[in-house]
Amino acid sequence: MPMGREFSPEKRIYPQFEASYPQGNQRIEMQEEQPTGFHEFTGRWRHNMDALWEGLPKEMREQLSETLGKLPGDRRGWRRLIHHASQQWRFATGKRHTVVILGPANVGKSTLHNQLIRPGEASAAVSAVPGTTREAQASDAGIFVLVDTPGADAIGAVGEKEREIALKSAQQGDVLIALFDATHGIRQPEIDLFGSIQALGKPTIVALNKMDLVGKERPTVLGKAAGALGLGSDEVLPLSAKKGEGIADILRAVAKSEPEIVAALGEALPAYRWSLAQVQIGQAASSAALIAMTPLPFLDFIPLVGIQAGLVLGIARIFGQRITLARAREMLAVFGAGWMGRTLFYELSKLGGPPGWALAAAVAAGTTVAIGYGALMWFDRGERLPKDALQRMARGVSKALIERLGTMGRRRPDRSTLRERLLEALESTMPERPVRADKDDRGGE
Fold first, then answer.
1. 56 burial type by CB count under 10 A (0-12 exposed, 13-18 middle, 19+ buried)
2. Structure pTM?
């Protein structure tokens, strides 16, 4: 729909925005793209996984497919999500899938292992010397157990023993990750090893590591490696374990191997998204406060609007929604951002006491927090918070910040000191995620 229509003062909403914005407590359904297929798995397991999911009740299958479409696309996001899901997973079931990493020596198995395990777990030794890992090492990856294995392609008595250890671990695993090296391609020893892995009859994910070292040759290298293994290019996941690139694809494939894992991740998604949005709100609020630290409050109004619009865009992305910058600015108007900030500044300035820089910074931060939570509730719950509720939130946060900042004296502190103090104060004033007593928060009960 074309943009640029006049603002409607009667409804305080842009006419072209009205159809997509919920009125009162009306909820809206968020539609996202659904991933299809199991290309990450090799051979017959692609079809077996498809059959496994097709065997689920239709409603459950649709819910789990929707969850897959909402999973993070980066390693850091997965770590946050797994953190939220792991405790629930332990309480829900005593058994977790075991994922085993296999491959030649010095291919990067231990580096991948260390990327996937939970913080605090013992890391596997990483070295450029082949054969650094001599025994299988099991670690906690949150929603599954991860096993690092010795190189399975070495020759001689020691090599045979390590190969035996690796394949025995694979026999006991539920899902296998076959890892190969992009820098030297697939040679006969790798082909033989892959044949032994396939003979185990386990769901197998094939990844080609060190892709960051092949530069512009990535498509060619990937295609040749896939061909040598008798696979299609889409059956081999490109990976740079050292840089953390491609980790999300590995985790998504592991999740697909077991619907219960996807269900646990789905249960954790609301808390994960809420925590991620809180981080963005805190960062935006501290940036807004720094901009507002001028002798004349709201002199930098345009940059402030930019930060708040960027915050709305960021929260929309967290919830898988695509909106334009123009739409984000319309939301600021709907929330009454400018009116809220001006009203709050004049209201709090009458109290006297706090230095002007502290008052301006606190109001800018408080207003930004309220805008952020208004957007968060819309994208999380499909609920529109009334303006008076947003105003109360902005007032409460601003007053709390004034109390904290007022102790720093009348002279403006340097930006790094102020940002540090703001983030500390904002952390203690952030509202908790409200629990809603419906099926969305009870796992569909």
1. middle
2. 0.63
